[in-house]
């Protein structure tokens, strides 16, 4: 056999042609492409040589891997797992220790210039990198070495993209996002963790089309990070109506009111949570009655308490494409809340007088 | 990990945790409630356990009262994570080691390789699919996982409606079918009723022909004599876990030492740093600091060495089931002590017990009643949050002054199990367990026994030093 394609790998894994075509059409849907792209994806999968993916771990908590292997669509996950084979992944691969290190070197040498490097976590620069030693070396060395020969570099999650929790003030280890230590362009897939379908979607896009999807000015794929969680939030109508939750599990919470006053950062967070959602489209944080806390945004740890309501207008406009629009949105949101605060008290008083039967009937609305 | 090897076995082991992020330093000065967002990120595998410990610590500090629904909702979210952790360990990490080429010549290898080899064996996709469906429970109750935000002092932000309770019941029921068909190939009631080694052997014999994965493992355990591997000091601790509707814990709190049960004195816990890259001296978590000192003489890890009244203890499912008094585990440990085999059997037995409890808790939820009681944060307070992650005892200690976090200390399960030596030279549980492990015997070639011992603790490196 001359070249091994993704399709060959899938068939070897026992995935039927029917399942394969289903995967292609699901992929097109996830990526927001028209059905006309389905044969194109199928053609690419059947004819393009398999691109290996090397997956590295620096300072992190493994939540990105956890998210990835739990992709809501089992088919997508199985296909992706077999497709990329995770040639090197500290967490999921079969080998361990020095054997694992050898696998990594072998993969780099064999696929020089033709592999995707996916990085979960980041390198700490303090103390010569000794806060994160893997395979006997500081992670920063290993990262630079692997990136040198990579075709594309993906930053999985907030750790690799922005630094995340360990880079929160005072950042004792000097944890540093990977784009600051590498010369390669970096495709950022932020989130803590990113949504599984976003991760599989980004990889599939790259494998299918041979190039990364269109990125925003911060390096995030526009197809997933082009809109704010607020834009498509199912509680948005309550925001517009000035109906807010005032404490966890209060009557407003049970009626699905807006969580803005509980600290929700949905209005300034660019992500696909409100559309793709989590755990196989079951839910997302706002659905659990807690606000969004903005985990796909740069520096979200150091913008004041997570339970403060957004008041800082400068917090808006962090996304490149929100330069102009963001300013306007901020003004609207700020004004809206001032007006709504008074209204809420009235609404709440009225709601309190409602009879219990109605409340029970409404309690299921959270699942909208 | 550094091993001294002599005469075909490990003479001494030094366990190293090469990763440090600094949570306890970062939390200083923050608004206490923000710990609920920081804490889960200690670990993406057991983030709910970290959330629960943080919510308990803050709840203790604020004197929060959790309504029964809130208790049950937290139990369900937490139990789901712990249960799935046990099986993830079994299917994705522990069993694939037996499919490795080192064992190709063994008569059982073909069957184990077909079922358990990493990612490609028949078990992995089956399990991952069942796991994904089961985790919809996390979606319903906790919004997202890992790193839910729904767990708060005083309960859960998510109220469950009658319709959703039905949905939860279906999810738990579907996973029970996976356990009964694939993991055990037997009804769960039959598994939890096993009351000793003889009963287990008898049950295993009856499984021949159409074995479940537990029976497969037991046969493997017998062939490889896994009960001879990985014995530590046989001192076990459990903080106790989950609460029934009447407030009683599902798994009891206590210490198992010298073959008997003791009560747990939480004030007897202190962290030794004599061999850690940390500044300072031995201190209880209430007052301890976590300040890195990479130049510390004699240190070899970022992990501290927690001790209970100066003694190293082992934590995990085996400790929980022993302390709780399950007759099967008590009998197995009486016969061969804590080892690779008993650790894995305890994990699977506990999975069956947890699933049965989850069905009970789902039925006990009362839609319409509160899931959360608000508690006013106090400007000056102290709190302790003790719980059990899948891997063992987890504690958070918080002190709040002037409305800010003045001190926050986290002692995670793997910190106990993977702790380095202390000032008295006493090794941690894994260091003890590795001593005497064969490195290249006909039964366990090429250091693979070392790997089984390490994996039997289901370690979590990111939790360890955090």
Description:
By secondary structure, chain A is α/β, with parallel strands linked by helices. In chain A, 39% of the residues lie in helices and 8% in strands. Chain A has a domain at 6-225: 3-Layer(aba) Sandwich (Rossmann fold). In chain A, helix 1 packs across helix 5 (74-84). Chain A is globular, with a radius of gyration of 22 Å. Mean pLDDT of chain A is 80; it is low at 312-368. Chain B has 466 residues and is α+β, with helices and mostly antiparallel strands. In chain B, the strands form 6 sheets. A 3-stranded antiparallel sheet of chain B has the order 5-8-9, with helices on one face. The longest helix of chain B has 27 residues, at 68-94. The model of chain B has no long low-confidence stretch (mean pLDDT 95). Chains A and B meet through helix 4, helix 5, strand 4 and helix 14 of A and helix 1, helix 2, helix 6, helix 7 and strand 4 of B. Chain A: Its EC number is 1.12.99.6. Chain A: It holds the Pfam family NiFe_hyd_SSU_C. Chain A: GO terms for molecular function: 3 iron, 4 sulfur cluster binding; 4 iron, 4 sulfur cluster binding; electron transfer activity; ferredoxin hydrogenase activity; hydrogenase (acceptor) activity; metal ion binding. Chain A: It catalyses: H2 + A = AH2.
- The average pLDDT of chain A is 80
Helix content range of chain B: 40-55%
Measured by DSSP, the beta-strand proportion of chain B falls in 5-15%
Q: Ranges of chain A with pLDDT <50 over ≥5 residues?
A: 312-368
Radius of gyration of chain B from CA coordinates: 22 Å
Q: Could you say what the CATH architecture of the domain at 6-225 in chain A is?
A: 3-Layer(aba) Sandwich
State the CATH class of the domain at 6-225 in chain A.
Answer: Alpha Beta
What is the strand arrangement across the widest sheet of chain A?
Answer: 2-1-3-6-7
What is the number of E strands of chain B? 14
Per DSSP, the total helix count of chain B is 18
Can you count the helices of chain A? 14
Largest sheet of chain A: 5 strands, parallel
Q: Report the uncertain regions of chain B.
A: none
* Global morphology of chain A: globular
How many strand elements of chain A? 7
Derived from helix and strand composition plus strand pairing, the structural class of chain B reads alpha+beta
What is the averaged pLDDT score of chain B?
A: 95
GO cellular component, one term (chain A): plasma membrane
Main location (chain A): membrane
Keywords (chain A): 3Fe-4S, 4Fe-4S, Cell membrane, Iron, Iron-sulfur, Membrane, Metal-binding, Oxidoreductase, Signal
GO biological process, one term (chain A): anaerobic respiration
């Amino acid at each position: 056999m001359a070249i091994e394609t993704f399709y060959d790998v899938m068939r070897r894994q026992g995935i039927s042609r029917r399942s394969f075509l289903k995967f292609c059409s699901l992929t097109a849907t996830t990526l927001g492409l028209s059905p006309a792209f389905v044969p194109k994806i199928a053609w690419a999968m059947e004819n393009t040589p398999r691109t290996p993916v090397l997956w590295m771990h620096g300072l992190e908590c493994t939540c990105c891997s956890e998210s990835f292997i739990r992709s809501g669509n089992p088919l997508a996950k199985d296909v992706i797992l077999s497709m990329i084979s995770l040639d090197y992944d500290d967490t999921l691969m079969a080998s361990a220790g020095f054997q694992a290190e050898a696998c990594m070197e072998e993969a780099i040498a064999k696929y020089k210039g033709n592999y995707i490097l996916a990085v979960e976590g980041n390198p700490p620069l303090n103390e010569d990198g000794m806060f994160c030693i893997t395979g006997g070396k500081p992670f920063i060395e290993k990262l630079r070495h692997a990136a040198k020969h990579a075709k594309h570099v993906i930053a999985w999650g907030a750790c690799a993209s922005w630094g995340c929790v360990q880079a929160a003030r005072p950042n004792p280890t000097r944890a540093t996002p990977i784009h600051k230590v590498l010369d390669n362009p970096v495709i950022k897939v932020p989130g803590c963790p990113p949504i599984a379908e976003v991760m599989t979607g980004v990889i599939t896009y790259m494998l299918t089309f041979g190039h990364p999807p269109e990125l925003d000015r911060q390096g995030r794929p526009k197809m997933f990070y082009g809109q704010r969680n607020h834009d498509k939030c199912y509680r948005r109508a309550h925001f517009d109506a000035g109906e807010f939750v005032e404490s966890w599990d209060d009557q407003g919470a049970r009626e699905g009111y807006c969580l803005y006053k509980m600290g929700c950062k949905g209005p300034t967070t660019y992500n696909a949570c409100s559309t793709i959602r989590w755990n196989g489209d079951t839910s997302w944080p706002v659905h659990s009655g807690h606000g969004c806390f903005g985990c796909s945004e740069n520096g979200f740890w150091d913008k004041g308490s997570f339970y403060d309501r957004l008041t800082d207008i400068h917090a808006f406009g962090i996304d490149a494409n929100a330069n102009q629009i963001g300013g306007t949105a901020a003004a609207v949101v700020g004004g809206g809340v001032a007006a709504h605060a008074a209204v809420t008290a009235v609404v709440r008083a009225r709601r309190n007088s409602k009879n219990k039967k109605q409340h029970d009937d409404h309690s299921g609305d959270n699942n909208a | 990990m550094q091993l001294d090897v002599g005469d075909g076995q490990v003479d001494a082991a030094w366990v190293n945790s090469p990763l440090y992020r600094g949570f306890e330093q970062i939390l200083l000065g923050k608004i206490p409630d923000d710990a609920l967002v920081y804490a889960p990120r200690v670990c993406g595998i057991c983030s709910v356990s970290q959330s629960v410990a943080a919510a308990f610590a803050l709840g203790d500090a604020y004197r929060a009262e959790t309504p029964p629904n809130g208790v049950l909702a937290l139990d369900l979210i937490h139990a789901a994570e712990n249960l799935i952790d046990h099986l993830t360990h079994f299917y994705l990490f522990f069993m694939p080691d037996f499919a490795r080429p080192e064992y190709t010549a063994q008569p059982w290898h073909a069957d184990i390789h077909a079922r358990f080899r990493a990612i490609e064996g028949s078990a992995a996709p089956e399990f991952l699919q069942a796991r994904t469906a089961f985790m919809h429970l996390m979606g319903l109750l906790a919004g997202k996982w890992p790193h839910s935000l729904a767990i708060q002092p005083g309960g859960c932000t998510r109220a469950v409606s009658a319709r959703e309770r039905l949905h939860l019941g279906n999810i738990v029921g579907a996973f029970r079918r996976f356990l009964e068909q694939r993991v055990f190939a037997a009804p769960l009631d039959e598994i939890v009723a096993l009351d000793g080694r003889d009963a287990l052997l008898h049950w295993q014999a009856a499984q021949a022909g159409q074995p479940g994965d537990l029976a497969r493992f037991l046969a493997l355990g017998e062939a490889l004599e896994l009960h001879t591997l990985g014995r530590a000091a046989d001192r076990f601790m459990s903080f106790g876990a989950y609460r029934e509707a009447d407030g009683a814990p599902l798994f009891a709190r206590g210490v198992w030492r010298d073959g008997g049960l003791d009560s747990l004195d939480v004030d007897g816990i202190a962290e030794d740093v004599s061999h850690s890259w940390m500044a300072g001296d031995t201190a209880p978590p209430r007052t301890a600091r976590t300040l890195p000192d990479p130049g510390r003489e004699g240190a070899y890890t970022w992990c501290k060495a927690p001790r209970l009244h100066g003694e190293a203890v082992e934590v995990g499912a085996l400790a929980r089931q022993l302390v709780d008094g399950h007759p099967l585990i008590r009998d197995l440990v009486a016969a061969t002590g804590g080892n690779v085999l008993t650790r894995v059997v305890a994990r699977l037995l506990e999975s069956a017990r947890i699933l049965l409890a989850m069905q009970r808790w789902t039925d006990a939820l009362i839609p319409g009643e509160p899931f959360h009681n608000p508690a006013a944060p106090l400007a000056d307070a102290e709190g302790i949050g003790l719980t059990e992650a899948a891997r063992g005892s987890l504690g958070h200690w918080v002190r709040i002054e002037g409305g800010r976090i003045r001190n926050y200390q986290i002692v995670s399960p793997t910190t106990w199990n993977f702790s380095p030596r202390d000032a008295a030279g006493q090794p941690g549980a894994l260091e003890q367990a590795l001593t005497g492990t064969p490195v290249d015997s006909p039964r366990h070639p090429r250091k693979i026994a070392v790997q089984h011992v390490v994996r039997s603790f289901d370690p979590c490196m990111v939790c360890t030093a955090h």
